[in-house]
Fold this sequence. Notes:
Blueprint: H1 11-41, H2 48-66, H3 75-97, E1 120-121, E2 125-126, H4 127-148
Antiparallel strand pairs: 1-2
Helix pairs in contact: 1-2, 1-4, 2-3, 3-4
Amino acid sequence: MTIADDGPAxxxxxxxxxxxxxxxxxxxxxxxxxxxxxSEVMELxxxxxxxxxxxxxxxxxxxxxLGLFPFDPRVVRYALPLAAxxxxxxxxxxxxxxxxxxxxxxxxxxxxxxxxxxxxxxxxVNIPFLSFLAFTTMVALLVxxxxxxxx
Length: 151
């Protein structure tokens, strides 16, 4: 049965939803490993907002595969709020780094400033932006999986 073949029980939709959740799990795993690489190998201390984003990213690495084997489309119900809250925190941090949000609102009063850019590639890709991209993609994948899992 192919992804395009719906079959008698809507199997094509289920296969595509499974693939979308699997892609989301891969992205969450790569993101979690990347965060650990930056902090443990490169010894870049995470700021407070980075810790909050990790709180919502790391559980996805365990939660998503639990819904894949066997596939349970309800996994989206539990994973999407984690990804959406992580996305909101990442948006706040990106706006803080870009100077859209004034520094007086910064939640990072101790330790590493949340607006500090420790790594920057191509003049605009930094760690907070990578987190924003990861959470945005995960939210999109989970929303698509939700709609694809319906018969």
